[in-house]
Amino acid sequence: MRKYEIINKLKEIAKKLNKSPGRREIPFKLYRKCVKNFGSFNKVKSKAGLSIIKRKCDPLPKKSYKFTKDLVKIMSYLMFDGHLYKDLKGFYFSSKEVKSLKDFERSIIKQFGIKPYYKYNTAGYRKQTHKVFMFNVKASKFLNEIGVPKGDKMVTTFDIPNWIKENKEFSKEYLKIAFYCEGCKYKASKNSERIQFNLNKSEELLEDGLNFMKSLKYLLKNFDIETTSISLTKGNLRKRDGKTTKTMKFNIRANSINKFINQIGWYK
User: Fold this and answer.
1) In this structure, are residues 20 and 50 in contact, taking their beta carbons and an 8 Å threshold?
2) Can you give the residue ranges of every domain in the chain?
3) pLDDT digits (tens, 9 = 90+) for 109-135
4) Residues with Cβ < 8 Å from 119, sequence gap 6 or more?
5) Which residue of 126, 149, 173, 215 is surrounded by the most CB atoms within 10 Å?
6) What mean pLDDT is reported for the chain?
């Protein structure tokens, strides 16, 4: 769709609504084309001669700033299969599993008192990937301040916050979601299974990535769960920015698998 077609489409929607449309009043695909071609939704509206209303973000309830298990779950979802926008306008979690999307939604409602919204089949019908979005600058800034990285996580430095490392209940919630997002369980032989954790990081920030993996192993050690050493696999070249990434991984040792499942839990 060309730029003039996007502008005309917005004008058509505005005419039907009899007002300048909001972000949620247009198809999601059209919104993405607006951002991709113009940089922002408001810039397209300006080009189309439509009014722009900047809404003030309502204050969050005081309970939103408390360190809770729901907050830890939100953070863990975002630090693995989720994304915190670089401009801190909002965040989302994507998954094929409705169960985990509902879990993410419940935690947001409990923590922030705001109901997020769904977008179904965001990657097309073949992949069946769904997303739960929340657009709230105050919540996004708070999450970033307490440890959630913004933007592309593969090219950003971050670690598990100390307030999670120092609390065993928080550590458990963090690990449970982390392994749900990035862990896998497979047959090592006819009578044995392995649980593995995998994570990608750009080569230039590989040391930071390894430190993050060591933090995960540290949390597991606090539950007396043994792990193998961290190994690296051959990197991939990303087309969008030419950066090379490496895959880091470690396993839960065979003698600790039952302990991991019983103490941490296994979602898959």
Assistant:
1) yes
2) 3-47, 62-150, 174-263
3) 999 999 998 877 655 555 677 899 998
4) 28, 130, 131, 133
5) 173
6) 90
